[in-house]
Task: structure prediction
Amino acid sequence: MHGYVGSMLKIKRIDHVAIAVADVDAALEKWRALGLEATVREVVASQKTEAVLLPVGDSNLELISPKGNDGLAKFLEKRGPGLHHVAIEVEGIEQALAFLAGIGVQLIDSTPRIGARGHKVAFLHPKSTGGVLVELVEEAHA
Ligand code: ZN
Result:
């Protein structure tokens, strides 16, 4: 059962909502005050970011901070900390990307990269999604 009638995408859920931060520790303090705790904290080599996951029910907030990622550093410079992208979990990320390319969606990554938690990830261009940076995620199966 997938909640997207008429689409070839096998969409499962919102995996995470990512928030760009300059100072991970300061941000963690603020979220901790709201009762959210980090479970995973890692430097993601392929993205040149540090990522921290804070579970919220079946989903997560993800705090991301640049560790050599110029795009993210510029985002913070220009706009300050704030919402950065929404990540949707899909089944079969390669097929999802092929389908989206086929209907004219602009892809930032035409093939998946390895993201946080070892998952396969790929970004869609905000031009194709109404101004929101969207990430597709497929869980790494052990
Ligand atoms: Zn993400």
